[in-house]
Design a protein that fits this description.
The structure is a single chain. The chain has about 280 residues and is an all-alpha fold. It is built from twelve helices and no strands. The chain has one domain. The relative contact order is 0.14.
Length: about 280
């Protein structure tokens, strides 16, 4: 007896969302969920801490004080810092830019494994989870970047038009963070120990990003300088210091930021999406 083909207009292709167009449309359609999760996470952080909203300002200020004491007063790594605002602003910009990416990638790494129940219960583009983590950390970082302007004014830095470029640099960095968060999320689904390794990776990376010292004065080897410039974190830090302190911004750093953002965002998205159905079994 010949097989009968049954067609039902109500049936949906289970692999339809694996196509790029429908996947992106589904992600855009649910963008409000990402905003909602980010706002909810921030409110939860405020409820579970004594200082609440004030902690978003106290935390960066305490970080500045500790690192300035260690690297500025004790180790005296302020040699060669000639930009406006001195070493205090130099350190503030470097630290906040670095911590923004560190927190976004760290939270993005656990965005899949921490939402196993949601993934198994509801069908939606899984990239929404690292996107929500990136948005959450972006909102949490905004007070830190406001502190940058406060420190600049406090240290006697005169506002310039380049200050207006800092929000654009942060937005640019957010795109890189989203791509890096997707890469970290997929790696963590296959290698759970990645979330324990990431703090050590960033602890090493912070010394290779020029956060605490000027690489022009501490790194003399040509190849070492190239490695610093090719570091995406150094690239974003250099651009932020140019915007706030008027320091030189190497063209190579801008190029590195463009390339790293494109690779992380496009390559990370495609690599993350290629394992979309595997996340259901996390």
């Amino acid at each position: 007896m010949p097989a009968t083909r049954v067609t039902d207009p109500g049936l949906v292709d289970a692999h339809a969302n694996s196509q790029l167009g429908p996947y992106l449309r589904g992600l855009w359609k649910r963008r409000s969920y990402g905003w909602y999760v980010a706002e909810s996470d921030l409110r939860q952080r405020q409820i579970t801490t004594i200082f609440g909203s004030l902690w978003h300002l106290l935390n960066p200020l305490l970080s500045i004080a500790v690192y300035f004491l260690v690297f500025g007063l004790i180790l005296k790594t302020d040699r060669g810092v000639d930009g406006k605002g001195g070493f205090l602003l130099f350190l503030t910009v470097g630290l906040f830019v670095f911590q923004y990416t560190q927190r976004a990638v760290t939270q993005g790494a656990i965005s899949i494994v921490a939402n196993r129940g949601l993934i198994q219960a509801i069908r939606f583009p899984r990239a929404l989870l690292p996107l929500s983590a990136t948005l959450t950390e972006t909102f949490a970082a905004l007070p830190s970047f406001i502190v940058v302007y406060v420190v600049a004014i406090t240290t006697g830095t005169t506002p310039t038009w380049s200050w207006l470029a800092l929000p654009g640099i942060v937005a640019w960095q957010m795109l890189f963070n989203f791509g890096a968060a997707m890469i970290a999320a997929r790696v963590t689904t296959h290698f759970r120990d990645m979330q324990q390794l990431l703090p050590f990776v960033f602890r090493l990376l912070i010394y290779a990003s020029g956060v605490f010292f000027s690489i022009e004065n501490y790194v003399s080897d040509g190849w070492m300088t190239v490695l610093f410039i090719l570091n995406p974190m150094y690239a974003f830090i250099a651009m932020a210091r140019w915007a706030t302190m008027g320091m030189d911004m190497p063209a190579e750093a801008v190029f590195a930021a463009i390339v790293w953002t494109a690779v992380a965002l496009v390559g990370g998205f495609l690599w993350f999406k290629s394992a979309e159905h595997a996340y259901d079994r996390v």
